[in-house]
Design goal:
about 230 residues, alpha/beta, Rossmann fold, 2 domains, 4-stranded parallel β-sheet, two-stranded antiparallel sheet
Length: about 230
């Protein structure tokens, strides 16, 4: 039997490479073997594509967690000229990640405003995401890989899609951000949408119960130490 190896792909709600600690970091401290291919403010295109690429590259992955983000995000490949005109002047999304600008919903640059006004097609984006979920779920099933899909933010699924997604998306009737806003940990922070560490512990326990139940006691122990500080 293969040793558990968990692949996680998501936006800043789950990406463990940032200054703020998230549930992914907590799971790792609890002893889980994790491959984290997410990124800050990245789109669903990045999240799902990088999860699948990692699956192709690593035959030892036993579990996959895909944390979906909101629709309407645009990742842009960056050149030196684009960095000067798009990235550096942006007040919030003034960073790059692995050669792309995760512009999120920024509309500070005229090109983004025009994209939203004339080119962005939310129904097509949602449809593409639905198709990718169905395909990656089938791919994982054929290889006995456990796939857990979590909504980070609200996604307006079509009525015809909900029947297919009810056994594929863990929190189809809610999302991480919705739960955070209604939790005792919620704090309004301008320019930052990474939930408080206290909430991250609760989220780590909730997801561990699905992904890695044997880590729960360890996470509870770490949580007690955190509360004692």
């Amino acid at each position: 039997m293969l040793k558990q190896k968990i692949l996680i792909s998501g936006c800043g709600l789950s990406w463990g490479g940032q200054e703020r600690k998230v549930w992914t970091n907590i799971l790792k401290v609890a002893g889980a073997d994790i491959v984290d291919v997410g990124g800050p403010a990245v789109s669903n295109q990045w999240i799902v594509d990088h999860a699948f690429i990692a699956l192709l590259d690593d035959s030892f992955i036993t579990d996959v967690v895909i944390q979906l983000t909101s629709l309407g995000k645009l990742d842009v490949e960056i050149t030196a000229d684009r960095e000067q005109s798009l990235v550096i002047p942006d007040l919030i999304r003034n960073f790059t990640h692995q050669g792309i600008w995760p512009s999120s919903a920024s509309q500070e640059h005229l090109s983004k405003k025009l994209w939203y006004e004339y080119l962005y097609s939310p129904n097509l984006e949602q449809q593409e995401l639905f198709c990718k979920i169905m395909l990656i779920d089938s791919w994982c099933n054929m290889r006995n890989i456990k796939l857990t899909i979590v909504q980070g933010y609200h996604i307006p699924w079509a009525e015809s899609q909900l029947g297919y997604l009810k056994d594929k998306i863990y929190n189809l009737d809610s999302n991480i951000w919705h739960d955070y806003e209604r939790s005792k940990y919620y704090v309004v922070e301008e320019g930052n949408t990474v939930p408080d560490l206290g909430f991250q512990f609760d989220l780590a326990l909730k997801l561990a119960s699905i992904i890695s139940p044997d880590r729960i006691d360890k996470i509870c122990h770490i949580q007690k130490q955190f509360k004692a500080i």
